[in-house]
């Protein structure tokens, strides 16, 4: 049994957050000359449709303090803010800790960090609500820039590879046949395209009453970046409900020529989502590579 498996099986086990002290999250517009040109984030409650804000984000241009990893995370809560606030506070810390475990590759680190964070939220007796997440790590490896992505739920990461939008995460929803089969094999069922008739996603943080069926294990991907990879979009379903991947890419690609335009690209994407009639909170992070 691995050390990680033992941690998951021991409900009294937590990871000491003091082992790693990443830098504080920066304001909505951030710059980092080594790994990316510009990253901007915009959050919108969408007051005409929603009375509460359950989205959150974290951007850390230098996660480990050595210039080797940038962290981007978009989180979309449901059923209250308790879980999404826990994820906002702890997930990047868990990722940093796991990255520093000897012999752990970055995809493994992401998978372990997600599950540890989820387990610890249960240990803290946060029993209501849940959250989806889309996370990207931008790294340098052997002189190349490499992107690692992970997600649970229907928040999404999309890469602009030339003129093509490339989706780097998987939507964990009932219309995904693999996810449907997984839930049903675990003893769950779907009613009105919701898990147990309640939840619209098949993977998430929290939702502990359905954890036998609703996993917090992310699907991960490693992507070596090339010169044609110009922009990265992370967004919650408030964007993707009204924008296709390609439409979102075309909007932000049209704003890449000047620094001033880059700084407001996420704002433009979020405002356009509201204009298109999205009924959810809306959060987007746009990273120009």
Automatic annotation (TrEMBL):
It is a peripheral membrane protein. It is found in: Membrane. Coiled coil: none annotated. Residues 39-289 form the PPM-type phosphatase domain. Its main location: membrane. InterPro entries: PP2C, PP2C_BS, PPM-type-like_dom_sf, PPM-type_phosphatase-like_dom. One of its GO terms (cellular component) is membrane. GO terms for molecular function: metal ion binding; protein serine/threonine phosphatase activity. Gene3D superfamilies: PPM-type phosphatase domain. PROSITE patterns: PPM_1 (PS01032), PPM_2 (PS51746). Keywords: Hydrolase, Metal-binding, Protein phosphatase. Belongs to the PP2C family. This is PPM-type phosphatase domain-containing protein. It comes from Pinguiococcus pyrenoidosus.
């Amino acid at each position: 049994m691995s050390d990680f498996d033992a941690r998951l099986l021991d409900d009294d086990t937590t990871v000491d957050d003091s082992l790693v002290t990443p830098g504080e999250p920066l304001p909505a517009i951030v710059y980092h000359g080594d790994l990316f040109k510009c990253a901007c984030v915009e959050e919108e409650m969408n007051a005409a449709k929603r009375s509460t804000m359950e989205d959150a984000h974290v951007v850390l241009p230098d996660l480990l303090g050595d210039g080797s990893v940038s962290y981007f995370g978009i989180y979309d809560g449901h059923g209250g803010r308790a879980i999404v606030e826990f994820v906002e506070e702890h997930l990047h810390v868990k990722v940093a800790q796991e990255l520093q475990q000897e012999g752990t590759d970055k995809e493994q680190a992401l998978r372990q960090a997600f599950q540890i964070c989820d387990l610890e939220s249960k240990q803290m007796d946060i029993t209501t609500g849940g959250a989806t997440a889309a996370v990207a790590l931008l790294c340098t490896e052997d002189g190349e820039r490499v992107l690692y992505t992970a997600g649970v739920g229907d928040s999404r990461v999309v890469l602009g590879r030339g003129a093509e939008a490339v989706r780097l995460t998987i939507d964990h929803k009932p219309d995904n046949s693999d996810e449907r089969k997984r839930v049903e094999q675990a003893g769950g069922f779907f009613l009105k395209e919701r898990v147990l008739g309640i939840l619209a996603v098949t993977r998430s943080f929290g939702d502990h009453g359905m954890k036998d069926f609703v996993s917090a294990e992310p699907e991960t991907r490693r992507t070596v970046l090339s010169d044609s990879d110009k922009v990265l979009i992370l967004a919650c379903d408030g964007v993707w409900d009204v924008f296709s991947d390609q439409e979102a890419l075309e909007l932000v690609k049209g704003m890449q020529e000047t620094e001033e335009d880059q700084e407001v690209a996420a704002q433009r994407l979020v405002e356009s989502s509201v204009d298109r009639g999205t009924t959810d909170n809306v959060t987007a992070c746009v990273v120009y590579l």
